[in-house]
Write a sequence for this structure.
């Protein structure tokens, strides 16, 4: 996760810089601070890592479209602001800072029983990515097939009984539908 | 109620004597009244607005349950156009789950729904099985013991969702085949089933049944207009562990909207009263279940006809 470190470093530099300018204000990122590309390797077993063209997406979407409330800016959504105004959550930028990688493991599922937990239906990381990406791609006619973004690994082809592991008589399609 | 739900040792000892005992248990439990389901049962909320029809769940199930190689690869989406006797794909002995596409004229994109056993709180398959091959586990899974099964197919007919199927690989060893909620390999250790883990969209949300039900209600409340105001499976046939959220009426995505809110066992109570005679009236048993099945279809036909009439009326207005 080299890129993530880069973001953090930028964030740190910005944060330090801001302290001198406006000590009481929360620092804020904009599109020019953004990394050009982000490697997402969450499902690396079945699919190779995705090189996400972050720069291109800053042209077609606003930061908040994906980094809802978490680009380090002042929390604006009134219902979020009730709790998150001026708190650390407003400073977190990376998706995985809130969205966990293994949402349905026994520990995470058990944690939901806490009656005080407010965000008890928060998507896991894989869900957050896909719901967000595919959700938007559907509305702007972007790519939505699995293999439009992902390249299957051999393990993936095995799982999906496709490619080298396709059934004898079967036909494979490109992943579009 | 545990008696009703865990009757696996049925065939221990002589068949006839145990049969008599089990039959008595049956009448006991009927008198005991309504069972609200195990409090710690796990469940899955299926959000049809999230499903994109990628079939990852089907692929994951096939590998997890070591089922035979599919006829077509899982990234082949021509399966959505397959029709068998005028029906969309169904679960069978080679696939415990299938995803089907539903084209709903009112909306501009197709919808997809994953089909599998819904793991009823009071399963009709279990109550209809007189050799007690089925067990409802406290974790919520409806599992079965293939060794006990005699292949009578009662469960197949009793299931309101048409789920159990049979493998007759050997004439004398029929085997029930259906989704078991990955009980053996995952659920009993607190792990989510393979399909849930594979779903990229989190269209399948796993958790305690009470929690995922709450999530469903919250999604309906927090996004007004997005969903039909009902969590399918909260009450249907006495409640199911797998429940559904949809943006269109549930019958448009192939779910039966005419099921009673009571477990199927109540509507067959009169019939079950005959169970003590089961060993002497074998043929009657089958006739009974046949009647039951045809009644199920009859009710549906009538309702469908009624709905059609209503629809027509609405159109005229
Ligand atoms: S859906 Fe059918 S097979 Fe599954 S538990 Fe309910 S009655 Fe039994
Ligand atoms: S894996 Fe999820 S999104 Fe894909 S078809 Fe199955 S339920 Fe739908």
């Amino acid at each position: 996760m080299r890129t993530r470190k880069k973001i953090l470093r930028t964030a740190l530099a910005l944060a330090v810089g801001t302290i001198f300018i406006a000590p009481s204000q929360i620092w804020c990122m904009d599109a020019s601070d953004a990394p050009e590309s982000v490697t997402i390797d969450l499902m690396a077993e079945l699919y190779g890592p995705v090189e996400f063209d972050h720069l291109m997406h800053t042209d077609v979407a606003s930061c908040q479209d994906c980094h809802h409330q978490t680009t380090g800016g002042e929390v604006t959504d009134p219902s979020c602001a009730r709790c998150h105004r001026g708190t650390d959550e407003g400073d977190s930028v990376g998706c995985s800072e809130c969205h966990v990688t293994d949402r349905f493991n026994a520990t995470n599922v058990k944690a939901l029983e806490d009656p005080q937990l407010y965000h008890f239906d928060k998507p896991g990381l894989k869900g957050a990515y896909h719901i967000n990406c595919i959700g938007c791609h559907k509305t702007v006619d972007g790519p939505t097939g699995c293999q439009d973004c992902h390249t299957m690994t051999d393990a993936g082809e095995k799982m999906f009984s496709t490619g080298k592991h396709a059934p004898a008589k079967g036909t494979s399609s490109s992943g579009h539908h | 109620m545990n008696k009703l739900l865990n009757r696996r040792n049925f065939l221990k000892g002589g068949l006839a004597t145990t049969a008599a005992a089990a039959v008595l248990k049956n009448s006991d439990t009927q008198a005991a009244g309504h069972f609200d389901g195990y409090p710690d049962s796990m469940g899955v909320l299926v959000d049809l607005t999230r499903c994109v029809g990628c079939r990852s769940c089907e692929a994951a199930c096939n590998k997890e349950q070591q089922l035979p190689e599919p006829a077509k690869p899982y990234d082949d989406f021509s399966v959505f156009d397959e029709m068998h006797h005028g029906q969309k794909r169904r679960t069978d002995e080679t696939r415990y789950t299938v995803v089907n596409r539903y084209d709903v004229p009112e909306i501009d994109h197709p919808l997809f729904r994953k089909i599998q056993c819904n793991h009823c709180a009071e399963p009709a398959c279990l109550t209809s099985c007189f050799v007690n091959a089925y067990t409802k586990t406290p974790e919520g899974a409806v599992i079965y013991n293939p060794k006990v099964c005699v292949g009578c197919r009662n469960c197949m007919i009793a299931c309101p969702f048409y789920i159990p199927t049979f493998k007759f690989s050997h004439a004398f060893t029929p085997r029930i085949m259906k989704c078991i909620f990955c009980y053996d390999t995952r659920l009993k250790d607190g792990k989510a089933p393979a399909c849930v883990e594979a779903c990229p969209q989190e269209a399948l949300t796993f958790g305690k049944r009470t929690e995922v039900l709450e999530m469903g209600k919250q999604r309906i409340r927090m996004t007004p207009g997005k969903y039909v105001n009902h969590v399918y499976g909260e009450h249907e046939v006495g409640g199911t562990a797998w429940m559904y959220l949809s943006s269109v009426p549930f019958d448009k995505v192939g779910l039966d909207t005419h099921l009673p809110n009571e477990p199927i066992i109540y509507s067959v109570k009169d019939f079950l009263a005959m169970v003590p005679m089961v060993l002497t009236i074998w043929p009657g048993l089958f006739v009974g279940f046949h009647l039951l099945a045809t009644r199920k279809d009859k009710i549906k036909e009538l309702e469908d006809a009624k709905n059609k009439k209503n629809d027509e009326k609405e159109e005229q207005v």
Remarks:
- The beta strands of chain A are 37-40, 50-53.
